[in-house]
Design a protein that fits this description.
Layout lengths: L7 E4 L14 E6 L4 E7 L5 E3 L7 H15 L7 H9 L3 H6 L11 H4 L3 H22 L2 H11 L10 H11 L8 H17 L4 H8 L12 H17 L2 H4 L29 H8 L14 H7 L10 H7 L5 H10 L1
Helix pairs in contact: 7-12, 9-10
């Protein structure tokens, strides 16, 4: 308080809302504009005390009483035991709330409390980082492409279910450098996908019947074998084997023209059906070397090329001579 410098003034006027005799020992402080500061000065000990009308004046009254007692006591009676015994009778809460006196100047509060502008900037920066991470997980383009392709009316979609679910689960994989809240967010998304998706063996067979994803790279060899067996059972159930027994099957050694141009690298946010299925079909395809293999085995091991311009049903129509029974199943199922 720059009282001596003349920036602040003291006055003996007591507040009308708080009468009391103890105000005769206190001086209120005001600035040059006659605006009262939330501090008073004790005329006995010259200490600066905090004052707030809302918090009442109990602490000020006690301070004046203690100062008056100290002045009236002889110096020989004011021993250390006198103060220690008195303080020892007070609880910690009383010391902190009732008897705690603020002796620092008002400007020191700015040192203890950070700048609100800096706090706002920090919170905004953290929120923006979380927003970017969540946008990376829930890409609008990915969600839109998946919805469009899986809900198409003019094209088969059953064979796309497994590749798309696999891609969505990859996006929910937890990384080592992910923050705790991002890990929790991904776990909730993955749990939601697992609870809301209901897959049957028809999805496996449909994925196998597409020439791009027929290798079922995300399955074990045992699971692949079970899908092949399920396909054979499906052929028998639909009596497709009996209807095509007399059709002469052509061997698996077929020369297939490779595309002349290397396909362009797709953008990160551009998801076509072929990209999703090619990602699902990562494993290499083996050549067929046995003559006694059935049609399913020959189809599973053959290297095939699919044009982006033709649909899966058009492909099966073109290759129905080589795989007569599977082509009938594909037309029925897809």
């Amino acid at each position: 308080m720059n009282i001596k410098a003349g920036q602040l003034q003291t006055t003996e006027d007591s507040p009308s809302s708080s009468p009391g005799e103890f105000w005769s020992s206190l001086l209120r402080i005001k600035d040059s504009d006659d605006v009262y500061e939330p501090f008073v000065q004790c005329t006995i000990c010259q200490q600066i005390l905090s004052y707030d009308v809302k918090n009442k004046t109990n602490s000020l009254k006690l301070h004046v009483q203690n100062c008056t007692i100290k002045i009236n006591l002889p110096k020989s009676a004011m021993s250390i035991d006198c103060y220690t015994n008195k303080i020892a009778t007070l609880s910690s809460d009383d010391k902190r709330t009732k008897y705690g006196l603020m002796k620092t100047i008002k400007s020191s509060a700015d040192i203890l409390i950070p700048d609100r502008t800096n706090i706002s900037r920090t919170i905004k920066q953290i929120a923006n980082e979380y927003r970017l991470k969540m946008n990376e997980i829930l890409r609008k383009e990915l969600k839109q492409k998946a919805s469009e392709q899986l809900s198409a009316d003019q094209e088969p979609t059953l064979h796309l279910v497994l590749p798309w679910i696999n891609k969505l689960k990859i996006f929910c994989q937890i990384k080592a450098d992910d923050l705790a809240v991002i890990k929790q967010f991904k776990s909730i998304l993955l749990k939601f996908i697992n609870e809301k998706t209901w897959l049957t063996q028809l999805h496996d067979i449909s994925t196998f019947l597409h020439p791009i994803t027929k290798n079922l790279s995300f399955y074990s060899q045992y699971e692949k074998s079970n899908i092949h067996k399920a396909t054979r059972r499906m052929l028998k159930t639909l009596n497709i084997l009996e209807e095509n027994q007399e059709i002469q099957q052509i061997g698996p050694n077929i020369n297939i023209a490779k595309p002349k141009k290397k396909p362009k690298k797709m953008r990160k946010d551009d998801y076509s059906q072929e990209d999703v299925m090619l990602e699902f079909a990562l494993a290499s395809q083996d050549d067929s070397s046995e003559d006694d293999e059935d049609e399913i085995e020959r189809y599973a091991k053959a290297k095939l090329v699919v044009s982006n311009e033709e649909s899966v049903l058009q492909w099966w129509k073109k290759w129905s001579i080589n795989y007569p029974t599977l082509s009938v199943l594909a037309k029925s199922l897809l």
